[in-house]
Amino acid sequence: MFVNFRRIRKWQFVQLMTACLVLSVVMVCWEQLDNHVISHAKSYSYRYLVNRFTYINKSFTISREQARSFSSFPYLLDHPDKCVDKDVLLLLFVKSSPGNIERRNAIRSTWGNESYIQNALGVTVKVVFALGTPPAKKAGLSCSTGSRVCFQEQLAREDRLSGDLIQQDFLDTFHNLTLKLILQFHWMHSRCAHARFLMTADDDVFVHMPNLVSYLQDMSSRGVTGLWVGRVHRGAPPIRSKDSKYYVPFEMYQWFSYPDYTAGAGYVVSRDVADKVYQATLTLNASLYIDDVFMGICGNAIGVSPQEHVYFSGEGKAPYHTCIYDQMMTSHGHVEDIYDLWKAATHPQVKQKTTGLIGRLYCTAVKMSLLCKPYYLNTYPCKAAFF
């Protein structure tokens, strides 16, 4: 059968060419379409129609003997007496790589300065850094021999000065982040169980400590329990593209959707939730190396759901503005600018400029212009402008 092109009208020809073009684009972009559109459709269908998260608990449950392999690493650096104070408002664990000495020093000098927090804010916050062992010749430490022993000696010297490194003997890599998460909850259980709250954060996160302390004091005075707060991801599907840093094979996680979880950049749990998560890690398979997703699996197992706080950032960096600083909790992606941001965000003029009717109206307008963008920034959502 042959097509008589002479009988094809102009508009029919345009339709044919358009269909061919669309089909070609779909074929070329099918992998991206499958990863971003179809995977999310499957995820939401699974989450809201099938709702089989109970199967996730069963598939990840293992014996205590098996689970012990994820938490039985010996401590290389430890401070069992770090929490001798009777009243600890917050135990703050910073996930850090061995080579990130400058980042740790910056945190110690700014938002993680325990003396400042005690003297200026009147509460006890314990800040410690969670580490594994440095990969040889890739740790970023100044060691001429490139040996792991030499790197470890430098970490020991740093710890003698700072007294805040908590290190276990597992390789510090992206694929061992879940081990680092387990380290934090087990350390709190055995060393600092009386702390009212636990926070975990990355070492490139800025924490507005005055705002956070005020928020946690309010939660504590109200006797809030079951608290798990941060930037919440709902209905997120596993990434099946092997090119992605967050690739998860089907054999590791066979479901279409993850349970709700908070962005690993920074989140807070209350003492009772921390204890329940610790208990969950005693019988869960921690081979899933995306730590914030594993936290979501733990939350699903213990029946605790994360709560959204609009001023906890995701992967994005918060806009630089006085009106943002007034309510900021965390902002992600700060290294070189952390000193300047700390000085600007905690300046007394921030509260002066943002209080009163005029100040509030002004800041609402400013935050709308900064946060209500037509494209996704992965920082604070538009609704944060009205808080």
From TrEMBL:
Pfam families: Galactosyl_T
Pathway: Protein modification; protein glycosylation
Location(s), subcellular: Golgi apparatus membrane
Main subcellular localisation: Golgi
GO MF terms, alphabetically ordered: lactosylceramide 1,3-N-acetyl-beta-D-glucosaminyltransferase activity
UniProt keyword terms in alphabetical order: Glycoprotein, Glycosyltransferase, Golgi apparatus, Membrane, Signal-anchor, Transferase, Transmembrane, Transmembrane helix
InterPro entries in the cross-refs: Glyco_trans_31
Membrane topology: Single-pass type II membrane protein
PANTHER family associated with the record: BETA-1,3-N-ACETYLGLUCOSAMINYLTRANSFERASE (PTHR11214), LACTOSYLCERAMIDE 1,3-N-ACETYL-BETA-D-GLUCOSAMINYLTRANSFERASE (PTHR11214:SF21)
GO BP term (any one): protein O-linked glycosylation
One GO term describing the cellular component: Golgi membrane
Assigned protein family: Belongs to the glycosyltransferase 31 family.
Gene3D superfamilies xref list: 3.90.550.50
Protein name per its UniProtKB record: Hexosyltransferase
Native organism: Zoarces viviparus (Viviparous eelpout)
Reactions performed catalytically: a beta-D-Gal-(1->4)-beta-D-Glc-(1<->1)-Cer(d18:1(4E)) + UDP-N-acetyl-alpha-D-glucosamine = a beta-D-GlcNAc-(1->3)-beta-D-Gal-(1->4)-beta-D-Glc-(1<->1)-Cer(d18:1(4E)) + UDP + H(+); a neolactoside nLc4Cer(d18:1(4E)) + UDP-N-acetyl-alpha-D-glucosamine = a neolactoside IV(3)-beta-GlcNAc-nLc4Cer(d18:1(4E)) + UDP + H(+)
Origin superkingdom: Eukaryota
EC number: 2.4.1.-
